[in-house]
Amino acid sequence: MELLKVIFISVIQGIAEFLPISSSGHILLFKRILGLDFDISFDLTIHFGTLLAVILVYRNDIAELVKGLFCKEIESKTFGRTLKRSEVAHIYLVFIIATIPAGCAGLLLKDVIDSCFVIDNSKIFFLLALFFIYTALILTLSSRIKKKKTTLIDKMSIKQALIVGFFQAIAVLPGVSRSGSTISGGLFCGVDKKDAGRFSFLLSIPLILAAFLLEVKDFISGDLTLAPDKALCYIAGLIVSFAVGYISLKLLLKMIQNGKIGFFSLYLIIPAAVSIALGFVTP
Length: 283
What we know:
This protein is mainly alpha-helical and 283 residues long. It has twelve helices and two strands; from the N terminus they run ααααββαααααααα. 72% of the residues lie in helices and 3% in strands. The protein has a two-stranded antiparallel sheet. The longest helix has 32 residues, at 85-116.
């Protein structure tokens, strides 16, 4: 594994993990175009880097939610008011409910996706193009939503959480952006713009962590290996994916607040077109 290739793919991961353009779809494209061959242990490393970026950005929110479980009430800067323990428990509930659909979809479809979405399968690039177009469509539609009355996370209903959860479940497919899906799902069901972004990225923590822990389990059981001579590459991948991911996340949050995520729908025409081209040229 060459260091420059590692840095390149880590930059792609850091950018596409949070911007609504699908990291899995882009990495699949670049693996095919550049002939990159990274094993699952490297994927584990760069995903951990982006997980650290989310935790750093939302460290205060996470600290408040943890504190809220042990105190009768807390003064929340995140929500701008005093939160009772029962209200904090409700926030945990909507997160759990929104996580369930994606968790089930991931467990049921993981083997199918892993076996079908490989770079030497030409048919999947046509599907990949379709999924990029789907992401562009929901970004365009959600960017045009203008609701006078919106809901904050602490007031989200079970129904709203389920809607966001189903949008996230669809995002297990390569080419469908998880952040784009969940943010759009939140906007569609009336969640405040800023809180739609906050909910989306806090929601990513248990999913990224669960995927990371599953890969760690495989590593411990001996199914994965880490070559000592590649330690520098793994360290570089971790640092680059963390740094780029942090910048991308901060940038996207500003764009969500300004209602400019529809911009990415125009960009997605490019990877969709590349996917179609690869579908024709791949044996």
